[in-house]
Amino acid sequence: MTTKAKKAPFFYGEENVIDIYLVAGQSNAVGYTNIVDKNAAYEFALELKKGFSNVLFAGRLRWDSGDYYTAQDYAWRTTKLGLGAGGGEKMGPEAGMAKALSEFYNETSGKTAGIIKYGHGGTSLLTKVTDTTGPSNKYGTWVPPTYAQEKLGLRYGDYKASMTGALYREFLEVIKDCLFSLRSIGYTNVNIKGLYWMQGENDRSEPDEYAVAFRYFASDIRRDVARIVRAMTAGDDRGAAEMPIVVGTISQTQNLEYPRAESVNLEFIAMQKRLPDSVSNCYVVDNSQYAISRYDENTGKVNTDGLGSDQWHWNQADQLEIGFNVGREFLSAGGE
Questions:
Q1: CA 63 – CA 127 distance, rounded (Å)
Q2: Of the candidates 212, 174, 209, 164, which has an alpha carbon nearest to the alpha carbon of residue 195?
Q3: Other beta carbons within 10 Å of 64
Q4: What is the pTM of this model?
Q5: Residue 107: its pLDDT value, please?
Q6: Which domains can be identified in the chain, with CATH numbers?
Q7: By C-alpha distance, which of 328, 323, 329, 330 is closest to 93?
Q8: 112: enclosing H helix or E strand
Q9: Is residue 145 classed as helix, strand or coil in its secondary structure?
Q10: CA 3 – CA 59 distance, rounded (Å)
Q11: Do 48 and 95 form a contact (C-beta atoms < 8 A)?
């Protein structure tokens, strides 16, 4: 009788460790912020020109056309300006995050961080029925499996075969592929340091149900990322099972397309700020103060007036500061 050899773990030992930070959500996570002044961004952090040497980036993003930004098929690069929704002229929170993280991850400390980002604009954590005609939820929703089963009545097999939760499932695949590709650049082990969740604009009219869905999401994403990492480390989840989740609030003035829109936003933001009361190791970065638009009573239309990149997305200076706040929150949550 022959005994099948035990498969060696993909990651092993403690040499060449990289700390991983996840970013996911909809368009303000993807990065739809227009880069309007590169010199101003380089004044914020000169490293954004060539990239932070000890803060790496990989990921896969969707935008409304349905195209992918593949980050060279999960190839890792230094984090710099232009890692948003395609073309190099847009940015997301990773730019500001890199500056904050570089206070701990730098050549002096010898420590390295990696940011894995995945998202798609205009998508929902709640929606079961997929919009197949427009960009919103066209490629699936973020609905996690336990929520789909217990609240929507979807058995796991049906869930996997549907567009419900397709973004959630693809996020897990992106994480797995990006982690696998780390070995090719010399990293032999990982720590999962947390998730920045920037989503909610599409669900802002249903704050109570969102709070329920988020509790399922937090539990499921920790469990599923931990499963991925355990399979690579022969059983050690490297912090994934209890990883910090940093929630970014939506803007108080996001898309003020009708007179009551700001009140709707404020109700949703208040719910987001209460999420740490029911979800352990959860933190909130208050993005509500960064103005995006205003409601023009004279025309009855939303007006950006130079505030946001458009009526949904923050401008360059605000996005840089938001990302920096997120990075600082991660360092604080991790005790760095």
A1: 18
A2: 174
A3: 17
A4: 0.94
A5: 96
A6: 17-333 (3.40.50.1110)
A7: 323
A8: strand 112-120
A9: helix
A10: 39
A11: yes
